[in-house]
Automatic annotation (TrEMBL):
Gene3D superfamilies, per database record: NADP-dependent oxidoreductase domain
PANTHER family named among the record's database cross-references: GH17980P-RELATED (PTHR42686:SF1)
Annotated InterPro entries: AKR, NAD(P)_OxRdtase_dom_sf, NADP_OxRdtase_dom
NADP-dependent oxidoreductase domain segment(s): 14-302
Organism annotation: Microbacterium sediminicola
Name this polypeptide is given: Aldo/keto reductase
Alphabetized Pfam families for the sequence: Aldo_ket_red (PF00248)
Length: 325
């Protein structure tokens, strides 16, 4: 599979597997299904895998580490995140995690972007993963913690990068303005951007993407289906957007795009995949998968041909920005 270099520090396959579903996001899967996801990705040439302590209170990291253990460590790129410490809560172990993951609430998440918090978080991740290093570490959702995250937090990661403990450092967020500020004021290598550059909406075109391209910072684009709205050929009325019920006007807009895709012999999710990859700043798209079949679907979409005329018609209908905007 085609790869892209991140500031000369490491290379990412253009498609990566996201690990939220391996942490039982929204529904339960078992260890065998998790292994099947990783195996299917590996077989199809995917060599980038992403996870976080937040995903299933560490379950995703444990499953991903176990699933990758059979593969040569130098042949894949693994990223995780810091900023949410997992604190033992045995008193709530009989309850379900309130964070949206179908796991026992054996821990609670505690925001901590201090140097000590970053180091403790990464130490815990390495233990769960069963590894002595990771390739990329992101500050995870520091939206309300700019002062600490942009100083202590990112400097701790930069120090680890300089020591060779991690390969590249960055931030992962659901907005574009603050990651752009991180690029302006800190020495990051990569941004994981969630849902802000998709076939449905492109706010990152106004700030983050041009700046990242100019500074050589790689963008890992995630949430390209807008949490399900663009994941099927036609959009049902009960589709979700940002993990909530989608507003009717967005459902209608997505279905207009789907109709045009069909006229050009392609599908809405295939077009969403290609659009999500098609910017000079974007190094990779990462898609969350809970089954081998979903991995296969993602790979087929990447490999499919999308007619250039589709983008011209979508732009003429003002459904996406015209080229150059």
């Amino acid at each position: 599979m085609q790869t892209t270099s991140i500031r000369g520090r490491l290379s990412l396959t253009r498609l990566g597997v996201g690990g939220a579903q391996l942490g039982n996001l929204g529904r339960t899967i078992d260890d065998a299904q998790s292994q099947a996801v990783v195996d299917a990705g590996w077989e199809r040439g995917i060599r980038y895998f992403d996870t976080a302590p937040h995903y299933g209170l560490g379950l995703s990291e444990r499953r991903l580490g176990a699933a990758l253990a059979q593969y040569p460590r130098d042949e894949y790129v693994l990223s995780t995140k810091v900023g949410r410490l997992l604190v033992d809560t045995p008193e709530t172990a009989d309850q379900v995690d309130p964070g949206g993951f179908q796991v026992p609430a054996t821990h609670r998440r505690e925001w901590d972007f201090t140097r000590d918090g970053v180091l403790r978080s990464l130490e815990g991740s390495l233990e769960r993963l069963g590894l002595d290093r990771v390739d990329i570490v992101y500050l995870h959702d520091p939206d309300f913690h700019w002062e600490t995250a942009s100083t202590e937090g990112i400097q701790a990661l930069i120090d680890l990068r300089e020591e060779g403990v991690v390969g590249a450092v960055g931030v992962g967020m659901n907005q574009s303005a603050m990651p752009a500020a991180f690029i302006e004021h800190t020495d990051i290598d990569v941004v994981m951007l969630a849902g802000r550059y998709t076939l449905l909406e492109q706010p990152a075109l106004a700030d983050l993407l041009p700046l990242a391209a100019a500074r050589g910072v790689g963008i890992v684009n995630v949430g390209i289906y807008n949490s399900g709205l663009l994941a099927r050929d036609r959009v049902p009325a009960d589709a979700t957007y940002n993990y909530l019920p989608a507003p009717p006007e967005l459902v209608a807009r997505a279905n207009r795009i789907a109709e045009i895709c069909e006229r050009w012999g392609t599908t809405l999710p295939t077009a969403a995949m290609h659009y999500g990859l098609d910017h000079p700043a974007i190094a990779a798209v990462v898609v969350g998968c809970r089954s081998a079949a979903q991995v296969e679907d993602a790979v087929r979409r990447v490999e499919a041909d999308v007619p250039a005329g589709l983008w011209l018609e979508l732009a003429s209908e003002e459904l996406i920005p015209a080229t150059g905007e």
